[in-house]
Amino acid sequence: MPFDPYRLARPLLFKFQPETAHTLAFAAGKMVQPIPGMMSLMAALCGRPPKHLVKKVCGLTFPSPIGLAAGLDKGAERREVWKAMGFGFVEIGAVTPEPQPGNPKPRLFRLPEEHLILNRMGFNSEGALAVAHRLRQRPSGLTIGGNIGKNKVTPEEKALDDYRAAYRLIAPLVDFMTLNISSPNTPGLRRLQAPEALRPLLNGMLGVRKEMGLEHQPLFVKLAPDLPFDELDAIVDVVVSCGISGIVATNTTLDRGIVSELNRAKVESWGDGGLSGRGLKLKSREVQRRILKRLPKEIAFMACGGISSAEDATLALNDGAALVQIYSSLIFEGPMLIGRINHALAETRSAR
Ligand SMILES: Cc1cc2nc3c(=O)[nH]c(=O)nc-3n(C[C@H](O)[C@H](O)[C@H](O)COP(=O)(O)O)c2cc1C
Q1: Is there a catalytic annotation at residue 183?
Q2: Between 3.20.20.70, 3.40.50.2300, 3.90.1200.10, 1.20.120.450, what CATH number should domain 6-351 receive?
Q3: Are residues 324 and 302 in contact, defined by beta-carbon separation less than 8 angstroms?
Q4: Is 341 in the pocket of ligand 1 (CB under 6 A)?
Q5: What is the pTM of this model?
Q6: How many angstroms does the Cα of residue 56 sit away from the middle of ligand 1?
Q7: DSSP state of 244
Q8: What share of the chain is helix, strand, coil (3-state, %, to 5)?
Q9: How confident is the model over 272-319, as pLDDT tens digits?
């Protein structure tokens, strides 16, 4: 196995509170990103995606089917770094129309022994204008999506106005857009998934997309893993009948049952929030398979939730996902994980 510096860095990084560790890692990225040659060195260390992993989805070219899920780069600050790690795409955000601080700290917790994260960040966002400004410059060879949400103070019945406002600023600067209506940390947000709320929201967003002449830009909607299956079926039917380009599933779960009994009391003591990471995999996969059973082939699907290895990614792709997204396992396994997955996927493909 090649030398992996993250094995040395992780014990040190994990001595800090999770949000402090995140800030430190981002600061390190900020330092190295502009140094000439550093991104090429990192790309050489992590491994560039092999050429035959390139995938076309919804008319877009993805250098690898493995992408960085929303939530890690909320402000489009480290795109060069994600590209150098071997990601084929990244979802920037969630971006809210107006800046907001998110929930009070502490709001991020990790359970290393189970590779689990609990977060109640609550859409800390610099706002769409600031993020749009940064998106004006972008690296080539990385497909970029924008993940948008509503401000906390915006009442549910005005949610469409918020999604429209964020869309107007972000959409012209990215390759695809995702409507995040499944974060558990903004009160009432998940209620937008109910078919009677979802249909007007999606139609409204398709309207603004047309108004802006972006009809050909893919628009995705991101769903929670906690929906009863009959409701999930009804949601898929709304997505299909409205003509949205695709679905991303899943977001984090409210279900504490994914934590081992040994650690459940500890996780419960951390309070509210959504869980992600290894333990989410089975739950997410059940939801993904249910969606895929109902979804016509021409509607794209991105699998997310607990994916931490080439085997997990292969299962999702074989289930019918066009693309795969990763967040939590990057925190536990480190940047070289992506290259390992890319190369294992490439090997299984060439062996076919
Ligand atoms: C700290 C944190 C913040 C997140 N923020 C967002 C977000 O802003 N928008 C979103 O759609 N998903 C967000 N997510 C959810 C992830 O994109 C992903 O759906 C979820 O973590 C499951 O994938 P994983 O098990 O690979 O982490 C966040 C997750 C974490 C851990």
Answers
A1: yes
A2: 3.20.20.70
A3: yes
A4: no
A5: 0.98
A6: 24
A7: -
A8: 50, 15, 35
A9: 999 999 999 999 999 999 999 999 999 999 999 999 999 999 999 999
